[in-house]
Amino acid sequence: MTTAGLLRDLRSIVGPRGLVDDPTWLVPYESDGLAMQRGRPLCAVLPRDTAQAAAVMARLARAGVPVVSRGAGTGLSGGATPVEGGALVGTARMRDVLSVDPVDRLARVQAGVVNVELTAACAAHGLFYAPDPSSQQACTIGGNVAENSGGPHCFKYGATTRHVEGLVIVTADGEVLDLTGAPVDPDGLDLVGLFVGSEGLLGLATEVVVRLTPLPEAVETLLAVFPDLDGACDSVSEIIAQRLEPSALEILDRLTIEAVEDSVFAAGYPREAEAVLLIEADGGDAEVAEVVARIRAIVERQGALEVRSARGADERKLLWAGRKGAFGAMGRVAPDLYVADVVVPRTKLREIVARTTEICREQRLKLANVFHAGDGNLHPNICYDRRDEDEVARVLAAGHAIMQMCVAAGGSLTGEHGVGLEKLPEMELAFAPADLRAMCDARDAWDPHRRLNPGKLLPVRACRERRAAGAPPASSAGAPFGSGEHGSSAGEPPR
Amino acid sequence: MTTAGLLRDLRSIVGPRGLVDDPTWLVPYESDGLAMQRGRPLCAVLPRDTAQAAAVMARLARAGVPVVSRGAGTGLSGGATPVEGGALVGTARMRDVLSVDPVDRLARVQAGVVNVELTAACAAHGLFYAPDPSSQQACTIGGNVAENSGGPHCFKYGATTRHVEGLVIVTADGEVLDLTGAPVDPDGLDLVGLFVGSEGLLGLATEVVVRLTPLPEAVETLLAVFPDLDGACDSVSEIIAQRLEPSALEILDRLTIEAVEDSVFAAGYPREAEAVLLIEADGGDAEVAEVVARIRAIVERQGALEVRSARGADERKLLWAGRKGAFGAMGRVAPDLYVADVVVPRTKLREIVARTTEICREQRLKLANVFHAGDGNLHPNICYDRRDEDEVARVLAAGHAIMQMCVAAGGSLTGEHGVGLEKLPEMELAFAPADLRAMCDARDAWDPHRRLNPGKLLPVRACRERRAAGAPPASSAGAPFGSGEHGSSAGEPPR
User: Fold this and answer.
1) pLDDT band for position A205 (50/70/90)?
2) Which of A25, A46, B184, B387 suits a disulfide with A18, CB 3.0-4.6 Å?
């Protein structure tokens, strides 16, 4: 069977508008938000529903080509980048909110529904979908599931995995698993729990049942302005030590503030500040008033120059606009932005920030900082130009140095962006060989040919050693990608 | 190698007090709280730490015998019952709280730590461990992990899986996996998420890193007394519809009230009531006052005859004593109690309760009801005497009829007690063959010989079909238990 035959079959499943194979139109599919690494897929297939997705996956299984799934492509770790070629299966045409159940507070959506659209669809019931990545205007629920995405309000509400109650999954060979039965934590082995955050290695989620959260009665947002970063960090520590539970605690440093204020996202952050701490509290009226009063006292004691308060939706939106637009605003500083995503014990926040600054200075790189401070989740943002090879090399070196430092400090590699391509080398630092082998085994149980999103999440060496150690996957042990009828070898899509 | 040789080796690992093989002393290990099904283990092994547990598991792997792990044996679905014989590995001597980190709000404990001991260990830091099974005075954190246990306050705080951040696991062949690195949701494939609720099929958890929750500033408990069950059910629906978020919503029916009031757990519940609704709210002072006032108005409108309020710890303890002691109190009604554990959509609460009553009437069984009403999690309690074979058969028939009705109504088989032995036949109703096969594959990736807790959670037929379909586990496909050097066949421990 030829490539043309495969494309013809795929087109007959999804219709002419569901298949992209023109090289010009494939350019956007070459990478996600980690712009420095790219790969060209053979085609992009855009099924409309589970049945089409299952037929597509079954056909691709027969062809033996790699499959990379993709939501909106807003990921920051290279998870949707087809580094080994093959077919890209996108969820862009699976955008229906299938049902909203206000009594049991569940919604069932197709994987391609955009994060904010889901919240819009349940607002009339006084409910919302809590995880709110900065890219929530564009990113999809399916992509959030693949990466176990977070967001500022995950400090209070938890990341995606805490909000997913069921999944419909199409497996590597095109079988449909309906794991949506239970209204609470699922019966049986928690395959849903395993799938969330599996970065496309276990299958394609086509439908997602999510838990909805009651809209709080009251929300109040504060912006505290500091003459130094330490005051902002120490405020966060004290807020947590006092067992206050705001819904978000975000720090932006001076370079970020400058970029935001120079951009369309200008939020009126004071340019003379070295740091701003954005605080939000939600809940009942009385509860919010109490939490806000206590937090205000803390930030003032920690040296805040000014504390602004927004209670109305419009004022609140303005204070948040700068935070949510921060990554976009950095585009004024340099054409590309590398957004690191490490988590450190909250006790080490100040020390790690100082060391990150040093690492970037050594590599002659411009660093801005945005943190989900409440979670200890740091996003050091490094500005660069991907056309400058030497600079790209220095960015990668700094990124790896930052990750290694955080692992050594007892932190973890990723808060919310996933491992993808970016953090692959550090997986061997964060996990012992036995731990990585257990992950490889879990993957092999779902995808024995390792065709799904190859080259991501699990270091090749750990898995290769597993095979050598005599635990081949269920069939065709060790078969290279492309061993099926199609015969294409990974990374070299036939033309 | 003989049985005597195996026992000698095990004794040399755990010491003489760590091995139980006297048939008299093995009686308590024959079942958990599902008293009607029993099995005799070859021995019970009680390691002190991860290293001993790993040596024990490696030795048992060489012997090729089944392994059942056990916490306190308070489970209600037969998860710790050694129905196929083999060795029982208990965590009773692994009771150290290893560390409490008040800043990152994490604790690291050995698996055998009792649920309330963990909360006691972190109370000085103003923190607690939120999941609170009714058996929390006895049940262990490791057992809670195996069953993904819940409890009354899981309505607000979520079940065990939402509180486990890391695990140290000993695998079927005695390898140690340390999945405790990350201070937040773990990097890599979420093996921790998969393991929680896996009922002993994937390995033995020896250490658990749990997330701690700040103790609320204020707690208030209400007891609303109703002349009928419907008023209590409707109150719960209205509280949820109004988006109020109490921390617990529990209903007890008349027979339960009578049993409690006749027992040492007497809580002063009024005997003339047909139902009581126990409500707790926690949070900031102002928040609690607001929530309680609004709930009080709802229950009064729904026909409550009386609403009692407890604010002090002692009064609160009294109101809760009846609820937490309800299962024990039923011992006055009959020698044995079957506690079902189904979850139904909250919209169908009244209908399902009525149908449950009918099913028990048809089978001439005495039924009492306790519900985690906020979650739609019902515990129909059926009183029986296990010495009466005919009655046991009718209890089983009623239990299966209740489960089947709940699955048909869009509910699930288990809220918090696990599948175990009890719900095995219904797994094939709740899941399609493909879903069950995916679970079998996930299990086979961890335990290819299927020696861990055989006969639980996954219906044998689904797994057998998987094998026939040509996807053998990694090695020794289809080998019966006891294929190792030891040569004993499951269920017939050699003497």
Assistant:
1) very high
2) A46
Closest CA to A87 of A452, A455, A420: A452
For residue A434, the chain B residue with the least C-alpha distance is B177
Closest residue by Cα to residue A365 from A409, A405, A326, A330: A330
In B220-259, the residues whose Cβ lies within 8 Å of chain A are 237, 240-241, 243, 245
A85-109: average pLDDT: 95
- Residue B469, Cβ density class (10 Å: 0-12 exposed, 13-18 middle, ≥19 buried): exposed
Partners of residue B240 in chain A, C-beta under 8 Å: 103
**Residue among B290, B375, B376 whose CB faces A286 most closely:** B290
- Taking CB atoms and an 8 Å cutoff, what residues of chain B touch A50? none
Q: Is B3-90 a domain of CATH 3.40.50.620?
A: no
Pairs across A and B, CB distance < 8 A: 250
Is pLDDT larger for residue A65 or for residue A372? Answer: A65
CA atoms of A365 and A359, how far apart (whole Å): 9
How many Cβ atoms from other residues are within 10 Å of residue B464's Cβ? 12
Please write the tens of the pLDDT for every residue from B39-76: 999 999 999 999 999 999 999 999 999 999 999 999 99
Mean per-residue pLDDT, A119-141: 95
Q: What is the mean pLDDT of chain B?
A: 89
Q: Which of chain A's residues have a Cβ under 8 Å away from the Cβ of B213? A: none
Mutate to test the interface with A, among B435, B446, B452 (most CBs of A within 10 A): B435
Q: Domain A97-214 is in which class?
A: alpha beta
Contact call for A427 and B188, based on CB within 8 A: yes
- B 303-362 residues with CB below 8 A of A? 343-347
Nearest to B431 by CA among B413, B450, B446: B413
Q: Is the pLDDT of residue B321 over 80?
A: yes
Among B421, B359, B363, B362, smallest CA distance to B392 is for B363
CATH topology of domain B218-328: Alpha-Beta Plaits (3.30.70)
Q: Model confidence over A260-307: pLDDT tens digits?
A: 999 888 888 898 899 999 999 998 888 899 899 999 999 999 999 999
Interface of B with A in 39-78 (CB under 8 A): none
d(CA A403, CA A340): 8
pLDDT at B493: 35
The pLDDT value given to residue B385: 93
pLDDT confidence bin for A479, thresholds 50/70/90:
very low
Provide the phi-psi class of A41: left if phi over 0, else alpha when psi is between -120 and 50, else beta. beta
Question: CATH 3.30.465.10 in chain B, residues?
Answer: 97-214
Output the pLDDT for position A410.
87
Beta strands in A269-360 (DSSP E): 275-283, 306-310, 336-339, 342-343
d(CA B179, CA B187): 9
With bands split at pLDDT 50, 70 and 90, how would you rate the model's confidence at B383? very high
CATH number of A334-426: 3.30.70.2740
What is chain B's Cα-based Rg? 23
Q: Which residue has the higher pLDDT, A197 or B241?
A: A197
Q: Where in chain A is the domain with CATH 3.30.70.2740?
A: 334-426
Q: What's the rounded Cα separation, in Å, for the pair A397 and B493?
A: 59
